């Protein structure tokens, strides 16, 4: 994650890290859709309202399906910028691989670095550094 942030010209002080599902699942299993939707509907509005992000990177298949749609494919939409209207404010949602996925699939690491390099100017134009 720190390497990805470096490519974008960001540090951990510039970002907020949050999970779509707020509780741990048994045996570290992937959350089922009803768990994802419950947490999304209950917590996401307050997180977006509190932090008012300009750009949100959505990391991994589970988070992307929770935000977009059950049939959403990270691979198909990797690095694509989606515009989301939240209480009159524009938020740019960008699906990316989860860092853990890249650790398990080294070929995806290089692909991510290219995508992040392509997103760098866009992110720099939207993010206020702390």
**With helices defined by DSSP (H or I, 4 residues minimum), what is the helix count?**
6
CATH superfamily (homologous) name of the domain at 2-15 and 53-126 = Uracil-DNA glycosylase-like domain
**What distance separates the N and C termini?**
18 Å
CATH topology of the domain at 2-15 and 53-126: Uracil-DNA Glycosylase, subunit E
Neighbour order of strands in the largest sheet = 1-3-2
Fraction of residues in H or I helices: 40-55%
Main pleated-sheet profile: 3 strands, mixed
Number of strands: 3
Q: What are the segments in which pLDDT stays under 50 over at least 5 consecutive residues?
A: none
Overall outline: globular
Order of helices and strands: HHEHHEEHH
CATH architecture of the domain at 2-15 and 53-126: 3-Layer(aba) Sandwich
The gyration radius over C-alpha positions equals: 15 Å
User: Which CATH class of the domain at 2-15 and 53-126 is shown?
Assistant: Alpha Beta
What is the mean pLDDT? 90
Question: How does the helix and strand content classify structurally?
Answer: alpha+beta
Q: How much beta, percentage-wise? A: 5-15%
């Amino acid at each position: 994650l720190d390497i990805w942030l470096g490519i974008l010209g960001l540090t951990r002080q510039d970002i907020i890290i949050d999970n779509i599902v707020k509780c741990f699942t048994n045996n570290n299993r992937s959350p089922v859709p009803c768990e994802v939707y419950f947490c999304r509907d209950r917590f996401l509005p307050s997180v977006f309202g509190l932090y008012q992000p300009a750009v949100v990177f959505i990391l991994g298949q589970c988070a992307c399906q929770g935000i977009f749609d059950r049939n959403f494919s990270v691979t198909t939409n990797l690095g694509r910028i989606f515009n989301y209207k939240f209480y009159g404010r524009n938020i740019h949602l960008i699906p990316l691989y989860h860092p853990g996925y890249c650790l398990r699939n080294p070929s995806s690491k290089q692909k991510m670095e290219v995508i992040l390099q392509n997103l760098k100017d866009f992110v720099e134009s939207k993010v206020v550094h702390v």
